[in-house]
Amino acid sequence: MDQYIGLDVSLKETAISIRQEGKRIWRGKCPSDPKLLSEMIRRHAPHAKRVVFETGPLSTWFYHALTAEGVPAICIEARHAQRILDETLNKTDANDADGLAHLAEAGFYKTVRVKAFDSMLTRTLVTARNQLLSISTQLSNQIRGLMKTFGLIVPKGRGRIFDGNVRQFLDGNDALAKIILPLLDAWCDIRRRAAGLDHQLLAAARGSQETKLLMTIPGVGAVTAISYVAAIEDPDNFKKSRSVGAWLGLTTRRYQSGEVDYDGHISRRGDNRLRGLLYEAAMVLLTRTSARTECSLKNWGLKLRDRLGFKRAAVAVARKLAVIMHSMLKTGEMFNALAGAPV
């Protein structure tokens, strides 16, 4: 007899519910350790057909670890499952596990493709770099704001220029220097750490043929290219290149009911960081004027800008970039600036 299992995963404990022939046959809890979970599943459900759990911070680790143990693990979209779980009168971990087991038995769920650890390592590198850059910006702004209180307006400048200007203003002001200099030293250290991650990122980009291929597109740099490759992983994950735009939330939402039928804003589903990077690449393509950026895609975007405005044109170009980049990964061809209007 086939058995269906729902797992409600949390940091410390995981609630388990097992169903068979439309009835719950066992439920309990286990520490959130894939090895312990797989042992308990084999003990109470030797004929497990589906083991369902939602996306979350531990989903990548759980999926690969359970799969390695021979458990038929399936990761499903949390937002889709939440619509069903919210119908439960009492919100408990055990009831959530029961609801997931119901979904596993009915087959009414949306499977999520879990990325490999190599791809997650690349995404972690990009995220850590962005976090350090964000902290660096916050610290520099904080230093400027604190010094303004005492009439010390630090002029525009970054890097060594900013460091030199701050130290020059603090010269002779020992009381304020004792407060600002620790912040400035932390700012300098964070910038050095960010530079180290930059070197790692560039080295990874140089070692990837796919990344170098995508960087032939005007406006697409190492961060955007390597983030795109890590997100897509295998071009065969998408049957059509057009699907990538919708997967990244760059297509408009539609509402249709009776006589009402209209398109709204973009859905903004999927990878927020990659969507933002593609939008930045589109803005660079539309605003930079050089021989390298001249291409049919830019001309199409500029015509769209005159008709719909800059922001909408940039979103449209970002979606086209997502489609073109997938097509390039699939065919292995470089970006053709003289090609006709993108499909």
Automatic annotation (TrEMBL):
Record protein name field: Error-prone DNA polymerase
Q: What Enzyme Commission number does this protein have?
A: 2.7.7.7
Work out whether the entry's keyword set contains Transferase: yes
Q: Which UniProt keywords apply?
A: Nucleotidyltransferase, Transferase
Q: Which GO terms describe its molecular function?
A: DNA-directed DNA polymerase activity
Q: Cite the Transposase IS110-like N-terminal domain residue spans from the record.
A: 5-149
Using the UniProt record, name the top-level EC class of this enzyme in a single word: transferase
- Judging by the UniProt lineage, the source's domain of life is Bacteria
For this UniProt entry, which residues form the secretion signal? none
Domain annotation Transposase IS116/IS110/IS902 C-terminal: ranges: 212-290
Q: Name one Pfam family in it.
A: DEDD_Tnp_IS110
